[in-house]
TrEMBL record, chain B:
Gene3D superfamilies: Dipeptide-binding Protein, Domain 1, Dipeptide-binding Protein, Domain 3, Periplasmic binding protein-like II. One of its GO terms (cellular component) is periplasmic space. GO terms for molecular function: peptide transmembrane transporter activity. Residues 1-19 form the signal peptide. It holds the Pfam family SBP_bac_5. Keywords: Signal, Transport. The keyword Signal applies. Coiled coil: none annotated. It is found in: Cell envelope. This is ABC transporter substrate-binding protein.
Length: 336, 527
């Protein structure tokens, strides 16, 4: 219990830090957001500029703006987007599930495929299959996500016609009635299996592209961790007892290598969210990544702070959960 | 242990196969079926902020509002020189201060309410009262004084400027002046003042009399339209239009692959070799003019950019053909700052011609001196990179002996410094607010753009005199007066017009795509 309380306290402190960092960094960006938002002609009219500045609360001193921001934040209000003119909470409420759906798909693909490849590579150490998997891992880590997204889109959509076009759904479909914001889930809940299948089909390519970096990273670390435990006495003892190969891999090898793998999965969330900014541009995904890109390029400060906060919260939450899982997986961590 | 990897490999292969089968099946049932089910998909790189006409003044917003709202006057196709009736007909007063609008037949909003003069007056007053991005359209550009908007009968109204304003008819077709259903909007927080609260309603449920109405709206990803059953004009060909936010490289793949029927943001390199089979490239000169400015303020100029012989030398040093090559096929060099398709444009001007010998002579005493050339890094002139153009200018000036330090900046930062008049020289562009040469008088000394380049009235009295003559000119004399103003500005000015790029619309299996300088494309005319 003490372990959980300490981790929770640290996470809350980090959250306060995130609000300060996002606010300060956002406001340090050179350039006047009002000039960025208004057209060149409108920006010449002091009345329009003044009205716009007042409407966005940008006529207040920076410190006042921060405390107003914090006060509103405690009430669940992240301000109004300069770009969309919607409450930022509402915008994020629409954009986040889109990215979450993509990220969850990507992490599942990365973990499942990555672990399989890591086990194969470790068990066939220094053979051709190991060399091939390690090469795939290096390529996955090194290839720029944006380039990979465009190349994959060109190959699988345009050349091979295996995957559908950009977006979350084909143009003939409307979004399913909103419950979770995850189209695959909402479509199933609404009894629209064709829409669910279409949403899943749209998920496969961007999700797989997004998974590539994490997969590469995971293969490298998981292979190394599995090799570390492969020759441990308890693994040899398990084999000597005649346990099946599958049981040895799952219950002994992977369990023993789980801590570093969990670390990578936690860290991978960060790269998934940053990778989403680029991937969503290529696949017109309409999630946090596309929202962040629009906000950043139009100096939409409330939206930038909102995205920064959400990413920070997700990152802290994921790592908090992983800290707890550490304690569960290895009781020595709790004691330490 | 040796049999394990084989099993795992088989499992992986099976999972991959299942994913591909699901993907393939869904792809064949969903993708690529849009045309047959009368769905039109248009790819556009969004700069959308709102669909409320009184607040929208972005390119994507104009496409959206053109589809939803009718305006008092409009343009036919790409011809922006002759306003034609839509909701109203018009007459101009002899002194060109007042335009009288008369209702033109019967038009009906999607709610079923008839379009009345009260709706037009209310919509215009709302544009003025909100003080949003497009409110300057209904004000005098020099004095900032709002036009007087008056209902004169149940079928007529007037708009009056304090000064002669022959541009009035060309301002009214702007989609930002789309006419709204005032009765419906007043029930949803709509007012004609700063307290207006109808924007969120308009972003969810449109209130216009145009060919389409909103079906769904997401400012970051896509806008979906459905036909307005009450529209009195020709019914649009498509029962569903999806305008989606897609960047250039993906637009090309979409239109080639048939998942989009129209791509609006491909540049000259991307359209190169694209036209084949059902894919067509519609090429139109853009009304956006890329220009170079040289700051005339002695405190910013570094003793260079404010010197007449330096400015003259720069004008002759630039290789305008090279910039056109960068901008791609169909691009042109405008003679002045007014784009070629507008009244009063200049075909060419001897001051802005490449002449290496004259440039060397003019720049002889500045050999080895250095200027800083700023340009936006995250904005392009109709897909043409400002960085590429800046490098071309750098190469030209260095060939004439002047060093150039390139200073790429995010456009928000650049505009901030440019507006403050702090930048020595740079590249920027101007897109038309309305298709009349008077929109470009801001490039005069002492006016908005002129002051950003440190160019005050007393520095160029001849240009100011020519500007006043252009403002005073009426009727057929206007074209010659605006040409004279541009010639004066080219002879002694802070701005060097560089290029008008071509705008490309790439279609796959559709026709009726006409590009317009004000609203880019009218979705309702596509077949």
């Amino acid at each position: 219990m003490r372990y959980v309380a300490i981790r929770l306290g640290l996470s809350l402190l980090l959250l306060v830090g995130v609000t300060i960092v996002t606010f300060v960094l956002t406001n340090l960006v050179p350039g006047d957001p009002v000039i960025a938002a208004l057209g060149q002609r409108a920006a010449d009219d002091p009345k329009i500029v003044e009205a716009y500045r007042a409407a966005q609360g940008l006529d207040q001193p920076l410190v006042v703006q921060y405390f107003l921001y914090l006060g509103h934040l405690l009430q669940g209000n992240l301000g109004t987007s300069i770009g969309t003119r919607n409450p930022v909470v509402q915008d994020l409420g629409y954009a986040f599930p889109a990215t979450a759906e993509l990220a969850v798909f990507a992490i599942v693909v990365a973990v499942v495929v990555g672990l399989v490849l890591a086990v194969v590579a470790a068990l066939r150490r220094n053979r051709f299959s190991d060399q091939l998997i390690r090469a795939i891992s290096v390529v996955g880590i090194s290839v720029p996500t944006f380039w990979l997204a465009v190349a994959a889109y060109f190959l699988f959509f345009f050349v091979l016609h295996w995957t559908p076009g950009s977006g979350r759904l084909s143009p003939i479909y409307d979004a399913p009635p909103r419950v979770t914001g995850l189209f695959t889930v909402d479509a199933l809940l609404a009894g629209q299996p064709d829409v669910a299948a279409d949403a899943f089909a749209h998920l496969v390519l961007p999700g797989s592209v997004l998974a590539v970096y994490t997969l590469g990273l995971l293969v490298r670390f998981a292979r190394s961790s599995i090799l570390d435990v492969l020759n441990q006495d308890y693994v040899r003892a398990a084999r000597a007892k005649g346990l099946s190969s599958g049981r040895v891999v799952v219950a002994y090898l992977l369990r023993g290598a789980l801590l570093p793998i969990l670390t990578i999965v936690g860290l991978a969330f960060g790269s998934l969210l940053s990778g989403a900014v680029l991937t969503e541009q290529v696949f017109a995904w309409g999630g946090i990544g596309q929202y962040a890109f629009r906000a950043a390029t139009s100096l939409d400060l409330p939206s930038i702070m909102g995205v920064g906060l959400v990413v920070g919260v997700v990152y802290i939450t994921v790592n908090f959960v992983i800290d707890l899982v550490y304690g569960f997986v290895d009781p020595r961590v709790r004691v330490g | 242990m040796n049999h394990l990897p084989a099993r795992l490999t088989a499992m992986t292969a099976t999972a991959a196969a299942v994913a591909l089968i699901v993907t393939g099946c869904s792809s064949s049932s969903g993708g690529g079926q849009s045309t047959s089910s009368k769905t039109l998909v248009v790819d556009n790189a969004f700069d959308l902020k709102t669909s409320d006409p009184a607040r929208a003044f972005e390119l994507t917003g104009s496409i959206v509002d053109k589809a939803i709202y009718e305006t008092a006057l409009t343009f036919n196709g790409s011809d922006v020189t002759k306003p034609v009736p839509q909701l109203t007909t018009y007459t101009m007063s002899d002194d060109e201060k007042t335009i009288t609008l008369t209702l033109n037949g019967k038009h009906v909003f999607s709610s079923g309410n008839p379009v009345t003069i009260d709706d037009i007056v209310w919509s215009y007053k709302r544009v003025q009262g909100i003080a949003g991005n497009p409110s300057f359209l209904l004000s005098n550009l020099s004095t900032g004084k709002p036009f007087a908007i008056t209902k004169t009968s149940d079928t007529t109204m007037t708009i009056t400027d304090t000064q002669p304003n022959p541009a009035l008819p060309t301002i009214l077709p702007n989609p930002s002046l789309g006419v709204l259903d005032s009765k419906t909007l007043e029930g949803h927080g709509g007012t004609t003042g700063k307290d207006d609260g109808a924007e969120s309603y308009l972003n969810a449920t449109s209130a216009g009399s145009g060919p389409y109405q909103l079906s769904s709206y997401n400012v970051s990803s896509k806008v979906v339209f459905k036909p307005n059953p009450k529209y009195v004009g020709d019914k649009p060909a498509y029962g569903r239009v999806v305008l989606q936010n897609v960047k250039g490289p993906s637009q090309k793949i979409d239109v080639q692959g048939g998942s989009a029927q129209l791509a609006l943001n491909l540049n000259s390199q991307q359209v190169n070799g694209l036209a084949s089979g059902s894919i067509k490239v519609v090429k139109t000169p853009s009304a956006n003019v890329g220009y170079l400015w040289l700051n005339q303020n002695a405190g910013v100029s570094g003793g260079l950019t404010n010197q007449p012989d330096f400015v003259k030398g720069v004008r002759h040093a630039i290789d305008y053909k090279a910039i056109q090559t960068i901008a791609g096929s169909g691009s042109t060099q405008p003679g002045g700052i007014v784009p070629s398709q507008f009244l009063g444009s200049l075909e060419s001007d001897e001051n802005n011609t490449t002449d290496a010998a004259a440039a060397k002579s003019d720049l002889a005493k500045y050999q080895g001196r250095s200027i800083t050339l700023s340009y936006p890094t995250d904005a392009a002139l109709d897909g043409v990179s400002f960085a590429d153009m800046a490098q071309s200018v750098q190469s030209d000036l260095e060939g004439a002996g002047v060093k150039v330090k390139l200073n790429g900046l995010p456009i928000a930062t650049l505009l901030d410094s440019f507006r403050a008049g702090k930048l020595q020289a740079g590249l920027m562009y101007w897109g038309p607010d309305f298709p009349d040469p008077s929109d470009y008088l801001t490039f005069s000394p002492g006016e908005g753009l002129g002051l950003r380049a440190g160019w005050t009235k007393d520095m160029a009295p001849e240009v100011t005199k020519a500007k006043e003559a252009a403002i005073a000119a009426q009727g057929d004399a206007r074209a010659a007066a605006y040409q004279a103003w541009q010639k004066a500005a080219n002879a002694d000015g802070a701005f060097v017009p560089l290029v008008q790029a071509a705008k490309y619309a790439v279609t796959n299996g559709v026709s009726g795509v006409t590009q317009n300088a004000i609203w880019t494309v009218d979705l309702a005319t596509i077949e």
